[in-house]
Amino acid sequence: MNAMRATLLLAAAMLLQWWWSTHLAYWGAAPQFLFALTILIAARRGPVPAMLIGWMWGLYSDVLRADMFGADALLYMLAGYVAGQFRRQVDLEATGPLAAAVFLLSWAYLLLRGALGSIFAKSFLWAGWIPALATPVLSALAAAVAAEFWDSRGLR
Amino acid sequence: MQRETRIAHYVAVCLAALSLVLLSLPLSSPVRAFKACAAYVFDPLPYEGEQGYQRIALAPERVRALLTADVQNRRLQDALRGDAWLKATAQSLAAENDRLRADLGLKTPSALHPLWAHVMERDPLRWYSSFSVDAGADLGVTLNDAVLGRSSDTVVAVGRVVDVRPREATVLLLTDERSAVAAYLSSGTLEGLVQGQSQNQGLLLMSYINSEARIVPGDTVYTSPTSVTFPPDVLIGRVAAVNPRDPFLASQSVEISPASNAAALQEVLILRARAPIGRKFAPAEPVAISSAPATSEAER
User: With a threshold of 0.90, does the pTM exceed it?
Assistant: First the structure.
């Protein structure tokens, strides 16, 4: 994958995240494409590129939310790190385990974000029950679709 | 593999430290400001109306003020475009009025030249009688020019100029006993003469009203078209009380509560009869007042 193509894909993912969150989010529930893709990159390319890209995407997500700047950057980076370490124990190349990892890490993301809120924003930032229940499922689905797309395009 | 893990650890520590620094800094507010400005630059329309105010509610106060000012500016520009159309319509109507007056052989009304002036001095001993304003002969003010004031959103009669000096003038208030102005009541357009009172300086006295007329307290009183000093239909005040009828007189009188509060006036509008020579301030548009002095009165 050359640099230009990679840059375009990264930008397209950011655009997709913004567009979906703005126009297709119902009751606050929308898939976290960037989070799922960070884990996908960690599974396919290793933790270092996943952490770097995830941190950058996290900053972008922080700009979109603008409630606790730096939180998403930290959590996306940590998701890339954890997924990159896990890939030695679990076969994250397969779609099923990848989706399961995204589901679990999404829950961890929600809880850690709330905890960071109680430290830096003086209140537990709870997304609400509907987003908390729906977002991990949607993110897992998005990761599965992205993995299929990745494999079909021969990016592996 | 070991090397990759080590690099991953280093990168994780560095990025985590950087993220924690970002979290510690008060960056949310500047980011919100940037977002609000960027969104407004690309798509200002959603910022109109109540939803727009909700969108910028989280932005810092200065950014909010800036965006609100721009929204208001665009609304005012729209309103100004509407006003230009109204002005053109008014000019067209004025031209038509002039033509019809000429066709009917009516006297053409004289144009008055309005001038805003500040109240600069009040004499405590003559509080309800007069005050001085900071406009005089140098700005074209002349004797007996009508002086109007503002009460809420209404223009009301205040008095007339009785003394003109080079840079200031004295205004005799309607509440002074030497003042008198022809007026009419809104109910039945009954004419009378409104005068100041020496006994009760807070109220005016409207006399020479037809004794058969039924007058209700609260009726509004306006300047009459027969007034020499004032343009017609300028609010003077409201009927405060109806005096008992004197069986030996053919007329009745009422007490009028003046619409202008002389103690609260800070600015007044002087209607100059003559165009000023060598203006110092930006002139206002001449106002055509359709006063038609037909009968004499005891105003001067």
Answer: no
